[in-house]
Write a structure and sequence with these properties.
This protein has helices at residues 6-16, 20-28, 32-39, 46-56, 61-66. The longest helix is centred in the N-terminal third of the chain and has 11 residues, at 6-16. It has one domain: Orthogonal Bundle (434 Repressor (Amino-terminal Domain)). The protein has five helices and no strands.
Length: 68
């Protein structure tokens, strides 16, 4: 089985966030339009993705591998 990409994992986590895009945006400082565009398939700046991932508790695969 293929390992899910960071992008896929982040999109799934954003979709599952109970507060919706507006609340996630407010809590992370990433604009709501950027969040929505990303969920709909557009690319996102890594700095924005990092903010979202940190808030949602997602660790990069590289970081996870290094900590083992």
């Amino acid at each position: 089985m293929k390992t899910p990409t960071f992008t896929h994992v982040l999109r799934v986590a954003i979709k599952a966030f109970p507060g919706g895009h507006n609340e996630l945006s407010r809590r992370t400082g990433v604009s709501q339009p950027a969040v929505t565009r990303f969920v709909n398939g557009s690319d996102m700046l890594l700095s924005r993705a990092d903010k979202l991932a940190a808030y949602l508790g997602i660790e990069s695969l590289q970081k996870a591998k290094r900590s083992k």
